[in-house]
Amino acid sequence: MSDHHKETFITKYIFSIDHKMIAKQFLITGMLMGIVGMLMSILFRLQLSSPGEPFAILEWFGVDWNPTLDANGNVIGTPIMEGVLDPNLYLSLVTMHGTILVFWVLTAGLSGTFANFLIPLQIGARDMASGFINMLSYWFFFAATVVLLISLFVHTGPASAGWTIYPPLSAIKETIPGSGLGQDLWLIAMALFVVSSLLGGLNYIVTILNLRTKGMSMSRLPLTIWAIFITAILGVLSFPVLLSCALLLIFDRSFGTSFYLSDIIIGGEALHHTGGSPILFEHLFWFLGHPEVYIILLPALGIVSEVMSVNSRKPIFGYKAMVLALIAIAFLSFIVWGHHMFITGMDPFLGSVFTFTTLLIAIPSAVKVFNYLATLWKASIRFTPAMLFTIGFVSTFLTGGLTGLILGDSALDINVHDTYFVVGHFHIVMGLSAIYGMFAGVYHWFPKMYGRMMNKKLGYLHFWVTFICAYGVFFPMHFLGLAGLPRRYYTNSAFPMFDELTDINQLITTFAIVGGLIQFIFVFNFFYSIFKGTKATKNPWESNTLEWTTPIERMHGNWPGEIPTVYRWPYDYSKPGAEKDFIPQTEPLKEGEEEH
Amino acid sequence: MESTLKKNTSKQLIWIGMGSIAMFFAGLTSAYIVRKGEGNWVELILPEWFWYSTITIILSSFALVVANQKIKKGKSVFSLVLIAFILGLLFSFFQLNGWKEMINQGVYFTGNVPNDNTMTISYFDDSLGIPIHVDSLNNNDRSINDRSTYDVCIIYSDVISSGIILNKGLLPDYAFIPKRSDTIYGCTDTLALNYNRNTTVDDGSCYYTCESGVTVFSTTHPYPLNYNLVWKDTNGHAFLEANTTIFADSNFSIPVCLPGCYNLSVTRTSTYNVSGSFLYVLTLSHFVHLIGGLIALMVTVINAIRKKYSADNYLGLEITSIYWHFLTILWIYLYCFLMYL
Q1: ipTM metric
Q2: Nearest to A251 among B12, B16, B281 (CB)
Q3: How many angstroms away from the CA of A186 is the closest CA of chain B?
Q4: Is cis: bond before B172, omega within 30 of 0?
Q5: B13, B16, B108, B285: best to mutate for the A interface, most A CBs within 10 A
Q6: Which of A257, A269, A271 is the best mutation test for B, with the most CBs of B within 10 A?
Q7: CB contact under 8 A, A244 and B24
Q8: Which residues make Cβ contacts (< 8 Å) with residue A17, sequence separation at least 6?
Q9: Residue A584 contacts residue A544 (beta carbons within 8 Å)
Q10: Tens digit of pLDDT for each residue in B253-292?
Q11: Which residues does B contribute to its contact with A (CB < 8 Å)?
């Protein structure tokens, strides 16, 4: 391979085709977007804990954001009246928070980082199948990021129809200021994002299929790679459906068609749309939307499997079951979208079918949790920060999964649909789990990325405060939901029955602020350690996988000489009869040694 | 080794990409099925051009199959690839003609229809079972465009045999409803709608609800049209309003209280025609993907001129062919889908 060309600053750090650099680009962009999304959530949490009360921080943040407009497009009043959040701005913040976290942080930030970083290193390849497509994938993502951030600063404010952009709210410009230019920019950003995601996914799949080193059969792949492989397949099959869904929405918004719109009267004026169906949008959207949940979760499951095995000094329990569970979850994710739509007037029989398929997902999920617990059982655990986040993942995956049983059942779901119960559920099972997986991955592979170690003490502090605050935020939401508090409302002060929930809301906001601030410790730790962290050894975690056989200094092409050959699976930890408690994949089998 | 790897990688890329595109169309066609299942759907008449284009693209795919067989034996494929490319262009031409014909039929992307359609309004007395226009079939028929208004007076006549007296050329049109009996029998209740002061004996025929009707026919347009109909009394007060979709060869009738003078205004509201929008989205999306195929074919033609392909090295031709066959199958699927579903 003739990849050892001379790198200039631009080809090394900006238009790099080296997968490791692209992974870092994804990671840092994802982290920055994560901070933006998190700060937004704190802003609207302030409103929810003290509705209508002024906050100095809002006064500073909200200048000229998302003003209320009259018919001629002129600004009415000031958008943030002496520090009180404007309802339109509230909706924009909720929308952008969801969009950024779901797509920018947990899809691109998580998959983009670890797929790019780990695939070539763990399968033994010099780089991705196409470094150029990989670079394009990042730059499409970057363009999407820029467009999305620009939409924060347009006159009428960013998109406000929720991250699920249900029409007619998202389709008709007159409904809400954010449905104007902000929504257009949202759609453009999302189109760029889908292109980026498809390019990335194509690359991941062909790389894993073709560029594995000698001896690296599919059954010897680390579970991270399996998870990323299946995630990529999910992505290339489900994102095109989002594209078709958004295409029809764009036609409705800008070309006057009536795919999703029907018989709408705004301000006494009937619009010309007839015969459309907004439910159609929901079907198309959730056909992507549900697999998207697993696009977020599966890489985290893979990372957790790997990190857990390394730090438990035990082989992962049930390797084949883990792979089969991943495949089963991926398959089932395509046939459960209806559980987002139980209250759309769906035929109860159809509802029961979706209930059945949804509850089936509990089986592979339970297999995974069981295997995690069995891996931890009687292990000599090394409590590194990465391992703590891994254990935190098992906790949130379990607690969040259990409320999934309630929401997956159509009869029960109807009672708590669109309440904070749902918010609590998906933040724990999808949001927290995936972000814990991401943190675990960053703490674990940081030495490989930057050749230095992250500070352990700050890592512990980060984990414990995050873990407690996250549960403090999302656990009480289940009670709010059971009390009937609807999600997405700007304020609930008009309903006396919710008055007694104010205390809980204040508690949640307090936890959110503390939990949010502690993330800056992580950011500090991350950037400080890049330059000043203690130097890492070649294999600091005593891990088996191939990435730890590469030199500490980053180089294009990964291995200076030949790519190592693989002789065994990646989970030979504490193998009876072995000298050390780990045997790298490159170690040939001894005479008479069974593979595993 | 390196070239086998490149071959495998490129082939997998095109297959996964095609899987992705297939999902895009699966999304659109499922939306089509779901939307169609909700009713209120127009069956479109597909232009014959789409049939010609189907044959054309199958032929071009066939040319590429032959080209692939020939290159394996090391023969020149230039003419075959060129034929495939020209047939591809011909396909595009037929598609353009097909869309043109759809527009001529009045099927637009947004679902609106043009103004040049005519429809007929007739008056019909349901309670008596007598069409009011028996004597002069055409005089009450009006062609209307987007917006038309009529003044209509419906009064009772003492003369049965003459039926209708028409005031040609002048507004309002007078339509006379024949009275039931010569002089004596009828309705004597002043509260009834058919009260007539000349009636001397009540025969129990009084009715109190509006039973007479105005029937509206659509005549020239093949697709349903939506109309808003408003009846106003002589004071300009709108007392009856109706929205209706009028299909070809069907009618719509709405009761109007008799007797009296009215102003009827007919306004064409939008034509729901989302099936037309679906047709354009499906065929245009296919066309967008076909443009990619045409560019690939063009590159293949240029490479064939330069004699870049040989029996050992024809990866470009092979991949272009795979993609082109995919476009052919996709089109056949869409054509059958639009034609028979």
Answers
A1: 0.86
A2: B281
A3: 20
A4: yes
A5: B16
A6: A257
A7: yes
A8: A11, A127, A131, A132, A134, A135
A9: yes
A10: 555 554 555 666 666 655 556 888 899 999 999 999 999 9
A11: 5, 8-9, 12-13, 16-17, 19-21, 23-28, 30-31, 34-35, 38, 40, 109-112, 226, 269-270, 272-274, 277-278, 281, 285
Q: Over the stretch A389-448, which tens digit does the pLDDT of each residue have?
A: 999 999 999 999 999 999 999 999 999 999 999 999 999 999 999 999 999 999 999 999
Least CB–CB distance from B23: residue in A241, A255, A280? A241
Distance in angstroms between the alpha carbons of the first and the last residue of chain B: 48
Are A563 and A542 contacting, i.e. CB atoms less than 8 angstroms apart?
A: no
Among 3.40.190.10, 1.20.210.10, 3.40.630.30, 3.40.718.10, name the CATH number for the domain at A19-233: 1.20.210.10
Residues on chain A touching B27 (C-beta within 8 angstroms): 240-241, 243-245, 284, 287
Query: Do the bridges between strand B119-125 and strand B213-218 make them parallel or antiparallel, or are there none, so unpaired?
Result: antiparallel
Is residue A562 exposed (0-12), middle (13-18) or buried (19+ Cβ within 10 Å)? exposed
Burial environment of residue A552 by CB neighbours within 10 A (0 to 12, 13 to 18, 19 or more):
middle
Radius of gyration (C-alpha) of chain B in whole angstroms: 32
Residues of chain A positioned with their CB less than 8 A from the CB of B112: 256, 272
* CA atoms of A421 and A399, how far apart (whole Å): 13
Domains of chain B (ranges plus CATH)? Answer: 2-112+273-340 (1.20.120.80), 120-268 (no CATH)
CATH 1.20.210.10: which residues of chain A? Answer: 19-233
**How big is the A-B interface in CB pairs under 8 Å?**
109
CA distance A15 to A103: 23
CB-facing half-sphere around the CA of B140: CA atoms within 13 A: 27
- To the nearest whole Å, the CA of B229 is away from the closest chain A CA by 16
The per-residue pLDDT for range A93-128, each reduced to its tens digit, is 999 999 999 999 999 999 999 999 999 999 999 999
Distance CA B94, CA B51 (A): 9
Provide the residue type at B238 as one letter. Answer: A
**Helix, strand, coil percentages for chain A (3-state, nearest 5):** 65, 5, 35
CB contact under 8 A, A275 and B13: no
Alpha-carbon distance of A401 to A394, in angstroms, equals: 10
Contact residues, chain A to chain B, C-beta under 8 Å: 129-130, 198, 201-202, 205-206, 209-211, 236-241, 243-245, 247-248, 251, 255-259, 272-277, 280, 283-284, 287
